[in-house]
Amino acid sequence: MRSSSTGQPKHASNLPVSEAGLEHEFTAALAALAPRHPLAVAVSGGPDSTAALALATQYALDHQHPAPMALIVDHGLRAESAAEAAMAAEQARAAGLTAHVLFWEGTNPAANVQALARAARYRLIAEQMQTLGLRDLITGHTADDQVETFLLRLGRGSGLKGLAGIAPTGPFPLAGYTGLRVLRPLLGVRKAQLVQHCEALGLRTVNDPSNENTAFARVQAREIMSTLGTLGLTHGRLLATIGHLQRASAAIEAAVEQLLRQAVRFEPFGFAKISLSLVQTAPEEVALRVLANGLRAVSGEPYGAEFDDLGRLWHEVRASVAYPARTLSGCLVGRDNGLLWVAREPAAAASTSVDIQPGQSAVWDGRFVVALGASYEPGRYRVAADRRPIRRADLGAYPAIKGQLATLVPSGFPALWRGEQCLGPAALTPGQGLHARFLPLQEAGTAS
After folding, report:
1. Is residue 356 within 8 Å of residue 381, measured between CB atoms?
2. For the chain, which has fewer Cβ within 10 Å, the N-terminal or C-terminal residue?
3. Helix crossing, 191-201 with 20-31: angle to 10°?
């Protein structure tokens, strides 16, 4: 990752006074999220994020908090992107803020561009936040984004949790960044208001042409809103519906959290065991969410399986004691009498590799925090899956791995490599070599 920094870490005091109504709305929304200062603001140069930065700066000034920092990602996907990132950074610097421009390096993708760019953006921002000691990131998601997300998920047949839309706050959308949060205090604000706000403050903004490209589903959803309005499905009514769904989803989520603690056990070698007797007695919506949580944790993916696929798997596994292992969301799911087990799919883990040096730590496959002892012999190392059986000593100390899991777990467990030579699997306890800790256990504070 490359980055450039502009500005000084001082408090911004020379921004124009923001419009009172929007400022008050932003203040109430942000305060409700209990922000941890100083804040990071993801800035693209567009009106949404530019307004978010201005409002966050005014909030910090009014409440005597340290000024926020602007984090700007240059994806390098368009010829204009470098100039736009530089403009956004210069504008932040002129307001007395610190700005960091982060660069996505490598080959531009030919397909799935928006998803890959989004993942790269969040990764770059998370790494910079950790470097700067920042914990909360403000994004410029608006009421328009909320409604578009609802429509897209409705078209995919999402369940209640998906239709509840974008949450005002939540954990970072990439695995491995425990402790970082995303705050979205503008979800109740229309984009047009933010455009007007930037104009009133004399702030420069840029327009990404992809926002007008009808090849993207989100743009198509935006365009049908005028038609939906003739049926009474206005932004206001859709937002009210999303609010109702969010309250219902939150009530269900409380039951899910309780059942997760009772019925799911995450094992240090990177798999999960789920008690079918406990989960089967729960309401189906709760049971499906528990299963989805297990799949997300074991796969390392921030998003779960499609609702229909998840439902089919759940009905199949309940109906057959001799349920054969099935793949879903980068995992293999099988049944062992009264237990459902979830393990990483070997082919999915085999494609993941991360470079590491002695004394460094990294996240491998979105599932394990790995660390190489500082006293290890200097050299170029990488962490990748090891398809060899786990050492007999490890199995003796950890007898939970048996049957089909005994062949699956090693292929989804991190090992240390030097060139094409595998030096052996990671240890579960810190030492001189490679140490691995399964992220669900680390996030729960559970000892191995």
Report:
1. yes
2. N
3. 120
* Residue at a domain's end among 170, 198, 229: 229
- CATH code for the domain in which residue 103 is found: 3.40.50.620
Domain count, the chain: 3
Segment 283-301, tens digit of pLDDT: 999 999 999 999 999 998 8
Per-residue pLDDT reduced to its tens digit, 170-224: 989 887 787 899 999 999 999 999 999 999 999 999 987 666 666 677 778 878 8
Check pLDDT > 80 for residue 391: no
pLDDT digits (tens, 9 = 90+) for 92-119: 999 999 999 999 886 666 667 777 888 8
Q: Are 195 and 201 in contact (CB under 8 A)?
A: no
User: Does some domain include residue 191?
Assistant: yes
Comparing 145-159, 351-365, 391-405, the range with the smallest average pLDDT is 391-405
The number of beta carbons lying within 10 Å of the beta carbon of residue 446 is 13
% of the chain beyond a pLDDT of 70: 87
The enclosing H or E element of 363 equals strand 361-364
Residue 246 lies in a domain: no
205-227 core/surface letters (b: 16 or more CB in 10 A; e: else): bbebeeeeeeeeebeebbeebee
- Residues 6+ away with beta carbon under 8 Å from 330: 299, 300, 301, 344, 345, 348
Under 8 Å between Cβ of 291 and 328: no
Residues 375 and 265 in one domain: no
| Domain final residue pick, 181, 198, 229 | 229
Q: 289 and 401 in one domain?
A: no
Domain range for residue 409?
A: 351-444
